[in-house]
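Re: Re: C-alpha coordinate formats

Sure, here are both.
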Amino acid sequence: VHISCHACTGLSPETVLKSVFGYSSFRPLQKEIIQNVCSGRDTLAIMPTGGGKSLTYQIPALIFDGLTVVVSPLIALMHDQVSSLASNGIEAVFLNSSLEWEEYKSCVARVLSGKVKIVYVSPEGLATQKIQTLLHNENLHIKCFTIDEAHCISEWGHDFRPDYLAIASVRRQFPQAVCLALTATATKHVRDDIVNNLQMKNPDILLASFNRPNIFLEVRPKRDSYVQIVSFLKEHLEDS
Protein backbone atom coordinates (compact mmCIF):
# COMPACT_ATOMS: atom_id res chain seq x y z
CA VAL A 1 0.00 0.00 0.00
CA HIS A 2 1.47 3.36 -0.99
CA ILE A 3 0.04 6.46 0.63
CA SER A 4 0.15 9.73 -1.27
CA CYS A 5 -0.41 13.19 0.16
CA HIS A 6 -4.09 13.42 -0.74
CA ALA A 7 -5.15 9.77 -0.86
CA CYS A 8 -5.77 9.47 2.88
CA THR A 9 -7.96 12.53 3.36
CA GLY A 10 -11.34 11.40 4.64
CA LEU A 11 -10.18 7.98 5.82
CA SER A 12 -11.12 6.87 9.32
CA PRO A 13 -8.46 5.97 11.90
CA GLU A 14 -9.79 2.40 11.94
CA THR A 15 -9.35 2.10 8.17
CA VAL A 16 -5.76 3.35 8.31
CA LEU A 17 -4.98 1.11 11.30
CA LYS A 18 -6.11 -1.97 9.39
CA SER A 19 -5.14 -1.23 5.79
CA VAL A 20 -1.75 0.39 6.42
CA PHE A 21 -0.49 -1.06 9.70
CA GLY A 22 -2.34 -4.38 9.68
CA TYR A 23 -3.89 -4.13 13.17
CA SER A 24 -7.53 -4.92 13.83
CA SER A 25 -7.95 -2.98 17.08
CA PHE A 26 -6.40 -0.10 19.01
CA ARG A 27 -4.36 -0.42 22.17
CA PRO A 28 -5.53 1.44 25.30
CA LEU A 29 -5.75 5.22 24.79
CA GLN A 30 -4.61 5.13 21.16
CA LYS A 31 -8.06 5.84 19.76
CA GLU A 32 -8.75 8.70 22.20
CA ILE A 33 -5.43 10.37 21.38
CA ILE A 34 -5.94 9.99 17.63
CA GLN A 35 -9.46 11.41 17.85
CA ASN A 36 -8.12 14.42 19.77
CA VAL A 37 -5.37 15.06 17.26
CA CYS A 38 -7.70 14.68 14.28
CA SER A 39 -10.15 17.12 15.85
CA GLY A 40 -7.38 19.65 16.53
CA ARG A 41 -7.22 19.37 20.33
CA ASP A 42 -3.80 19.70 21.97
CA THR A 43 -2.99 16.52 23.86
CA LEU A 44 -0.43 15.26 26.35
CA ALA A 45 -0.29 11.47 26.51
CA ILE A 46 1.72 9.43 28.98
CA MET A 47 1.97 5.84 27.80
CA PRO A 48 4.37 3.05 28.80
CA THR A 49 7.16 1.96 26.52
CA GLY A 50 5.68 -0.45 24.00
CA GLY A 51 2.24 1.10 24.35
CA GLY A 52 2.07 2.21 20.73
CA LYS A 53 2.78 5.95 21.01
CA SER A 54 4.04 6.30 17.44
CA LEU A 55 0.72 5.29 15.89
CA THR A 56 -1.02 8.15 17.69
CA TYR A 57 0.64 10.65 15.37
CA GLN A 58 1.33 8.43 12.37
CA ILE A 59 -2.34 7.63 11.76
CA PRO A 60 -3.48 11.29 11.94
CA ALA A 61 -0.55 12.19 9.67
CA LEU A 62 -2.00 9.90 7.00
CA ILE A 63 -5.46 11.38 7.46
CA PHE A 64 -4.31 15.01 7.37
CA ASP A 65 -3.85 16.68 4.02
CA GLY A 66 -0.59 18.27 5.14
CA LEU A 67 2.63 17.71 7.05
CA THR A 68 3.28 16.34 10.53
CA VAL A 69 6.51 17.48 12.20
CA VAL A 70 7.91 15.14 14.84
CA VAL A 71 10.51 16.47 17.27
CA SER A 72 12.65 13.62 18.55
CA PRO A 73 15.88 13.78 20.59
CA LEU A 74 17.31 10.49 19.32
CA ILE A 75 18.84 10.11 15.86
CA ALA A 76 18.71 6.30 16.04
CA LEU A 77 15.00 6.44 16.83
CA MET A 78 14.38 8.69 13.82
CA HIS A 79 16.17 6.18 11.58
CA ASP A 80 14.11 3.30 12.95
CA GLN A 81 10.81 5.15 12.59
CA VAL A 82 11.47 6.25 9.00
CA SER A 83 12.57 2.74 8.01
CA SER A 84 9.47 1.25 9.61
CA LEU A 85 7.19 3.75 7.87
CA ALA A 86 8.88 3.12 4.52
CA SER A 87 8.20 -0.61 4.90
CA ASN A 88 4.51 0.29 5.13
CA GLY A 89 4.70 2.49 2.02
CA ILE A 90 4.54 5.76 3.94
CA GLU A 91 6.63 8.72 2.83
CA ALA A 92 8.68 10.06 5.75
CA VAL A 93 12.11 11.63 6.16
CA PHE A 94 14.43 12.75 8.94
CA LEU A 95 16.50 15.91 8.78
CA ASN A 96 19.48 15.73 11.11
CA SER A 97 23.27 15.85 11.29
CA SER A 98 23.67 12.23 10.17
CA LEU A 99 22.80 13.20 6.58
CA GLU A 100 25.34 14.21 3.99
CA TRP A 101 24.48 17.54 2.35
CA GLU A 102 23.28 15.96 -0.89
CA GLU A 103 21.05 13.55 1.06
CA TYR A 104 19.73 16.46 3.09
CA LYS A 105 18.84 18.45 -0.03
CA SER A 106 17.14 15.38 -1.52
CA CYS A 107 15.00 14.95 1.61
CA VAL A 108 14.04 18.63 1.59
CA ALA A 109 13.04 18.35 -2.08
CA ARG A 110 10.79 15.39 -1.25
CA VAL A 111 9.14 17.38 1.54
CA LEU A 112 8.54 20.34 -0.77
CA SER A 113 7.12 18.05 -3.46
CA GLY A 114 4.22 17.23 -1.12
CA LYS A 115 4.96 13.50 -1.09
CA VAL A 116 6.20 13.35 2.51
CA LYS A 117 3.64 12.98 5.29
CA ILE A 118 5.99 13.02 8.31
CA VAL A 119 9.29 14.79 8.87
CA TYR A 120 11.45 14.05 11.92
CA VAL A 121 13.75 16.75 13.32
CA SER A 122 15.83 17.14 16.45
CA PRO A 123 15.01 19.89 18.97
CA GLU A 124 18.37 21.46 18.14
CA GLY A 125 17.59 21.40 14.43
CA LEU A 126 14.04 22.74 14.70
CA ALA A 127 15.14 26.31 15.40
CA THR A 128 17.85 26.41 12.72
CA GLN A 129 17.38 28.79 9.81
CA LYS A 130 17.27 26.03 7.18
CA ILE A 131 14.49 24.13 8.99
CA GLN A 132 12.60 27.37 9.63
CA THR A 133 12.84 28.29 5.96
CA LEU A 134 11.54 24.87 4.98
CA LEU A 135 8.58 24.90 7.38
CA HIS A 136 7.54 28.37 6.27
CA ASN A 137 7.55 27.44 2.59
CA GLU A 138 4.24 28.53 1.07
CA ASN A 139 3.70 25.07 -0.42
CA LEU A 140 3.68 23.36 2.97
CA HIS A 141 0.77 23.09 5.38
CA ILE A 142 1.87 22.13 8.88
CA LYS A 143 -0.99 20.22 10.49
CA CYS A 144 0.60 18.72 13.59
CA PHE A 145 3.60 19.17 15.86
CA THR A 146 4.41 16.01 17.78
CA ILE A 147 6.96 16.21 20.59
CA ASP A 148 8.35 12.80 21.43
CA GLU A 149 10.12 12.18 24.75
CA ALA A 150 8.30 15.29 25.95
CA HIS A 151 9.66 14.96 29.50
CA CYS A 152 12.85 16.50 28.06
CA ILE A 153 11.06 19.87 28.05
CA SER A 154 10.70 19.87 31.83
CA GLU A 155 13.32 20.96 34.33
CA TRP A 156 11.78 18.30 36.57
CA GLY A 157 12.31 15.62 33.91
CA HIS A 158 15.16 13.11 34.13
CA ASP A 159 16.55 14.08 30.72
CA PHE A 160 16.04 17.86 30.51
CA ARG A 161 17.29 19.37 27.23
CA PRO A 162 17.29 23.18 26.99
CA ASP A 163 16.73 23.08 23.21
CA TYR A 164 13.25 21.70 23.88
CA LEU A 165 12.28 25.08 25.32
CA ALA A 166 12.52 26.63 21.85
CA ILE A 167 9.75 24.36 20.52
CA ALA A 168 6.98 26.60 21.85
CA SER A 169 8.25 29.62 19.93
CA VAL A 170 8.30 27.62 16.70
CA ARG A 171 4.89 26.17 17.39
CA ARG A 172 3.46 29.68 17.91
CA GLN A 173 4.37 30.45 14.31
CA PHE A 174 1.87 27.77 13.21
CA PRO A 175 -1.20 28.41 15.38
CA GLN A 176 -3.40 26.24 13.19
CA ALA A 177 -1.31 23.13 13.92
CA VAL A 178 -2.38 20.77 16.69
CA CYS A 179 0.23 19.86 19.32
CA LEU A 180 0.72 16.31 20.60
CA ALA A 181 3.23 15.64 23.41
CA LEU A 182 4.22 12.05 24.15
CA THR A 183 6.30 10.49 26.90
CA ALA A 184 6.55 7.27 28.86
CA THR A 185 7.25 8.99 32.15
CA ALA A 186 5.89 12.15 33.71
CA THR A 187 5.10 13.10 37.30
CA LYS A 188 2.52 15.80 38.05
CA HIS A 189 5.35 18.40 38.08
CA VAL A 190 6.61 17.22 34.70
CA ARG A 191 3.11 17.14 33.17
CA ASP A 192 2.47 20.72 34.30
CA ASP A 193 5.84 21.79 32.93
CA ILE A 194 5.16 20.19 29.54
CA VAL A 195 1.77 21.89 29.21
CA ASN A 196 3.11 25.28 30.29
CA ASN A 197 6.35 25.22 28.32
CA LEU A 198 4.60 24.12 25.12
CA GLN A 199 1.80 26.63 25.77
CA MET A 200 -0.77 23.95 25.00
CA LYS A 201 -4.29 25.28 24.56
CA ASN A 202 -6.98 23.55 26.65
CA PRO A 203 -5.11 20.26 26.42
CA ASP A 204 -6.48 16.82 27.13
CA ILE A 205 -4.09 14.99 29.45
CA LEU A 206 -4.30 11.22 29.09
CA LEU A 207 -2.49 8.79 31.36
CA ALA A 208 -2.39 5.12 30.36
CA SER A 209 -2.17 2.27 32.82
CA PHE A 210 1.36 1.13 33.49
CA ASN A 211 0.29 -2.36 34.46
CA ARG A 212 2.23 -4.76 32.24
CA PRO A 213 0.58 -8.19 32.44
CA ASN A 214 3.56 -9.77 30.66
CA ILE A 215 5.97 -8.60 33.38
CA PHE A 216 6.19 -10.15 36.84
CA LEU A 217 8.25 -8.61 39.63
CA GLU A 218 9.35 -10.52 42.71
CA VAL A 219 11.76 -9.57 45.49
CA ARG A 220 13.65 -12.30 47.32
CA PRO A 221 16.13 -12.13 50.20
CA LYS A 222 19.74 -12.14 48.96
CA ARG A 223 21.46 -15.30 50.20
CA ASP A 224 24.48 -16.60 48.28
CA SER A 225 23.55 -14.54 45.23
CA TYR A 226 25.73 -16.44 42.76
CA VAL A 227 23.96 -19.72 43.54
CA GLN A 228 20.58 -17.97 43.38
CA ILE A 229 21.34 -16.49 39.95
CA VAL A 230 22.59 -19.78 38.51
CA SER A 231 19.55 -21.58 39.88
CA PHE A 232 17.22 -18.97 38.35
CA LEU A 233 18.90 -19.21 34.95
CA LYS A 234 18.61 -22.99 34.97
CA GLU A 235 14.88 -22.63 35.58
CA HIS A 236 14.55 -20.47 32.44
CA LEU A 237 16.97 -22.02 29.98
CA GLU A 238 14.71 -21.56 26.93
CA ASP A 239 13.23 -18.19 27.95
CA SER A 240 14.19 -14.75 26.71
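Second one below.
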Amino acid sequence: RIWLNILRVACVGVLVCGFSLAGILLGGFMGIIDTAPDISMESLEIDKLSTYIYDQDGNEINKIRTETQRVYIPIEEMSDNLLKAVVAVEDSRFYDHNGIDIQGILRAGFVNLQASDSAEGGSTITQQVIKSLALTTDKNWTRKIQEWYLALRLEYDLTQEYGHDRAKDMILEKYLNFVNLGNSTYGVEAASNRYFSKSSKDLTLSEAAVLAGVI
Protein backbone atom coordinates (compact mmCIF):
# COMPACT_ATOMS: atom_id res chain seq x y z
CA ARG A 1 0.00 0.00 0.00
CA ILE A 2 2.89 2.38 0.77
CA TRP A 3 4.39 1.83 -2.69
CA LEU A 4 0.97 2.27 -4.27
CA ASN A 5 0.58 5.65 -2.57
CA ILE A 6 4.07 6.66 -3.65
CA LEU A 7 3.22 5.68 -7.23
CA ARG A 8 0.02 7.74 -7.09
CA VAL A 9 1.89 10.80 -5.78
CA ALA A 10 4.55 10.34 -8.48
CA CYS A 11 1.90 10.13 -11.22
CA VAL A 12 0.19 13.27 -9.94
CA GLY A 13 3.56 15.03 -9.82
CA VAL A 14 4.34 14.04 -13.41
CA LEU A 15 0.95 15.27 -14.58
CA VAL A 16 1.31 18.58 -12.73
CA CYS A 17 4.80 19.10 -14.18
CA GLY A 18 3.56 18.17 -17.65
CA PHE A 19 0.63 20.57 -17.57
CA SER A 20 2.83 23.32 -16.09
CA LEU A 21 5.43 22.87 -18.83
CA ALA A 22 2.73 22.84 -21.49
CA GLY A 23 1.27 26.04 -20.04
CA ILE A 24 4.66 27.74 -20.02
CA LEU A 25 5.36 26.71 -23.61
CA LEU A 26 1.88 27.77 -24.78
CA GLY A 27 2.21 31.10 -22.98
CA GLY A 28 5.61 31.71 -24.55
CA PHE A 29 4.30 30.77 -27.98
CA MET A 30 1.31 33.11 -27.67
CA GLY A 31 3.60 35.87 -26.44
CA ILE A 32 5.75 35.50 -29.57
CA ILE A 33 2.64 35.58 -31.78
CA ASP A 34 1.22 38.64 -29.99
CA THR A 35 4.43 40.61 -30.59
CA ALA A 36 4.49 39.85 -34.31
CA PRO A 37 3.91 42.94 -36.49
CA ASP A 38 0.64 43.53 -38.31
CA ILE A 39 1.23 43.11 -42.02
CA SER A 40 -0.56 43.47 -45.33
CA MET A 41 0.62 43.66 -48.93
CA GLU A 42 0.59 47.45 -48.58
CA SER A 43 2.91 47.31 -45.56
CA LEU A 44 5.36 45.02 -47.39
CA GLU A 45 6.72 47.95 -49.34
CA ILE A 46 9.80 47.87 -51.56
CA ASP A 47 11.18 51.40 -51.37
CA LYS A 48 14.66 51.15 -52.91
CA LEU A 49 14.33 51.56 -56.67
CA SER A 50 16.58 52.70 -59.51
CA THR A 51 16.61 56.44 -60.23
CA TYR A 52 16.19 57.86 -63.74
CA ILE A 53 16.38 61.36 -65.18
CA TYR A 54 13.86 62.37 -67.87
CA ASP A 55 13.60 65.38 -70.13
CA GLN A 56 10.54 67.64 -70.26
CA ASP A 57 8.92 65.34 -72.82
CA GLY A 58 9.22 62.28 -70.60
CA ASN A 59 12.13 60.69 -72.45
CA GLU A 60 14.75 58.92 -70.33
CA ILE A 61 18.12 60.65 -70.66
CA ASN A 62 20.17 59.14 -67.85
CA LYS A 63 20.21 56.49 -65.13
CA ILE A 64 21.83 57.28 -61.79
CA ARG A 65 24.02 54.48 -60.45
CA THR A 66 23.22 53.74 -56.81
CA GLU A 67 23.91 50.87 -54.42
CA THR A 68 20.53 49.33 -55.32
CA GLN A 69 19.39 48.82 -58.89
CA ARG A 70 15.74 47.77 -59.06
CA VAL A 71 12.82 48.27 -61.44
CA TYR A 72 9.44 47.21 -60.04
CA ILE A 73 7.14 45.55 -62.58
CA PRO A 74 3.84 43.62 -62.24
CA ILE A 75 3.89 39.86 -62.59
CA GLU A 76 1.97 40.13 -65.88
CA GLU A 77 5.09 41.68 -67.44
CA MET A 78 7.37 38.80 -66.43
CA SER A 79 8.24 35.83 -68.61
CA ASP A 80 6.17 32.74 -67.91
CA ASN A 81 9.41 30.77 -68.29
CA LEU A 82 10.90 32.83 -65.46
CA LEU A 83 7.93 32.32 -63.14
CA LYS A 84 8.00 28.56 -63.63
CA ALA A 85 11.79 28.34 -63.27
CA VAL A 86 11.89 30.30 -60.01
CA VAL A 87 9.02 28.33 -58.46
CA ALA A 88 10.66 25.05 -59.52
CA VAL A 89 13.97 26.00 -57.91
CA GLU A 90 12.86 27.93 -54.83
CA ASP A 91 9.50 26.47 -53.77
CA SER A 92 8.15 23.69 -55.96
CA ARG A 93 4.95 23.34 -53.90
CA PHE A 94 4.31 27.10 -53.82
CA TYR A 95 0.85 26.84 -55.37
CA ASP A 96 -0.16 23.95 -53.08
CA HIS A 97 0.86 24.98 -49.55
CA ASN A 98 -0.79 27.63 -47.38
CA GLY A 99 2.31 29.67 -46.53
CA ILE A 100 4.54 27.06 -44.93
CA ASP A 101 5.63 23.74 -46.42
CA ILE A 102 5.72 21.05 -43.73
CA GLN A 103 7.29 18.55 -46.13
CA GLY A 104 10.00 21.05 -47.02
CA ILE A 105 10.71 21.80 -43.36
CA LEU A 106 11.06 18.08 -42.52
CA ARG A 107 13.29 17.49 -45.54
CA ALA A 108 15.52 20.45 -44.68
CA GLY A 109 15.75 19.30 -41.05
CA PHE A 110 16.79 15.81 -42.13
CA VAL A 111 19.40 17.13 -44.59
CA ASN A 112 20.82 19.59 -42.06
CA LEU A 113 20.95 16.89 -39.39
CA GLN A 114 22.99 14.69 -41.68
CA ALA A 115 25.27 17.58 -42.66
CA SER A 116 25.53 18.94 -39.08
CA ASP A 117 25.03 22.38 -40.65
CA SER A 118 22.43 24.58 -42.35
CA ALA A 119 22.94 22.93 -45.71
CA GLU A 120 19.35 23.45 -46.83
CA GLY A 121 16.52 25.79 -45.88
CA GLY A 122 12.84 24.96 -45.62
CA SER A 123 11.50 28.48 -46.16
CA THR A 124 8.78 29.01 -48.72
CA ILE A 125 8.62 32.01 -51.05
CA THR A 126 5.96 33.47 -48.76
CA GLN A 127 8.26 33.12 -45.75
CA GLN A 128 11.12 34.77 -47.62
CA VAL A 129 8.90 37.74 -48.44
CA ILE A 130 7.89 38.02 -44.76
CA LYS A 131 11.46 37.68 -43.50
CA SER A 132 12.89 40.23 -45.92
CA LEU A 133 10.18 42.89 -45.78
CA ALA A 134 8.55 42.55 -42.33
CA LEU A 135 11.03 40.87 -39.98
CA THR A 136 14.79 40.50 -39.66
CA THR A 137 17.23 37.86 -40.82
CA ASP A 138 18.21 36.96 -37.24
CA LYS A 139 18.46 33.21 -36.74
CA ASN A 140 16.42 32.53 -33.62
CA TRP A 141 13.21 30.69 -32.75
CA THR A 142 11.26 33.87 -31.96
CA ARG A 143 11.76 35.21 -35.47
CA LYS A 144 11.09 31.80 -37.05
CA ILE A 145 7.81 31.28 -35.19
CA GLN A 146 6.66 34.78 -36.16
CA GLU A 147 7.68 34.08 -39.75
CA TRP A 148 5.56 30.90 -39.85
CA TYR A 149 2.58 32.63 -38.27
CA LEU A 150 2.74 35.68 -40.54
CA ALA A 151 3.16 33.54 -43.67
CA LEU A 152 0.01 31.60 -42.80
CA ARG A 153 -1.86 34.78 -41.92
CA LEU A 154 -0.82 36.65 -45.07
CA GLU A 155 -1.85 33.83 -47.41
CA TYR A 156 -5.15 33.34 -45.58
CA ASP A 157 -6.04 37.05 -45.70
CA LEU A 158 -5.09 37.43 -49.37
CA THR A 159 -6.93 34.26 -50.37
CA GLN A 160 -10.07 35.41 -48.58
CA GLU A 161 -9.96 38.77 -50.38
CA TYR A 162 -8.62 37.89 -53.83
CA GLY A 163 -8.86 34.12 -54.25
CA HIS A 164 -6.11 31.50 -54.28
CA ASP A 165 -4.49 32.14 -57.67
CA ARG A 166 -4.40 35.93 -57.38
CA ALA A 167 -3.07 35.71 -53.81
CA LYS A 168 -0.20 33.50 -54.94
CA ASP A 169 0.59 35.82 -57.86
CA MET A 170 0.72 38.85 -55.55
CA ILE A 171 3.21 37.12 -53.25
CA LEU A 172 5.36 35.85 -56.14
CA GLU A 173 5.35 39.33 -57.72
CA LYS A 174 6.63 40.85 -54.48
CA TYR A 175 9.33 38.21 -54.18
CA LEU A 176 10.59 38.58 -57.75
CA ASN A 177 10.84 42.35 -57.39
CA PHE A 178 13.00 42.38 -54.24
CA VAL A 179 15.17 39.25 -54.59
CA ASN A 180 18.94 39.81 -54.74
CA LEU A 181 20.44 38.80 -58.10
CA GLY A 182 24.03 39.94 -57.58
CA ASN A 183 26.10 43.02 -58.41
CA SER A 184 23.77 45.37 -56.47
CA THR A 185 20.96 44.22 -58.77
CA TYR A 186 17.61 43.43 -57.20
CA GLY A 187 14.48 42.15 -58.87
CA VAL A 188 14.17 40.24 -62.12
CA GLU A 189 13.60 43.27 -64.36
CA ALA A 190 16.84 45.01 -63.39
CA ALA A 191 18.67 41.68 -63.58
CA SER A 192 17.29 40.93 -67.05
CA ASN A 193 18.44 44.33 -68.27
CA ARG A 194 21.85 43.97 -66.67
CA TYR A 195 22.71 40.43 -67.75
CA PHE A 196 20.76 40.03 -71.00
CA SER A 197 20.00 43.62 -72.10
CA LYS A 198 16.30 42.88 -72.39
CA SER A 199 13.09 43.05 -70.39
CA SER A 200 12.20 40.07 -68.20
CA LYS A 201 9.09 39.41 -70.32
CA ASP A 202 11.38 38.59 -73.27
CA LEU A 203 13.60 36.05 -71.49
CA THR A 204 14.13 32.72 -73.21
CA LEU A 205 13.84 29.46 -71.30
CA SER A 206 17.62 29.17 -70.85
CA GLU A 207 17.95 32.81 -69.73
CA ALA A 208 15.13 32.36 -67.24
CA ALA A 209 16.86 29.25 -65.89
CA VAL A 210 20.08 31.23 -65.41
CA LEU A 211 18.34 33.90 -63.32
CA ALA A 212 16.54 31.25 -61.27
CA GLY A 213 19.92 29.62 -60.67
CA VAL A 214 21.44 32.92 -59.52
CA ILE A 215 18.79 33.16 -56.77
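The longest helix spans residues 2-34. The chain has a mean pLDDT of 83.
- S.
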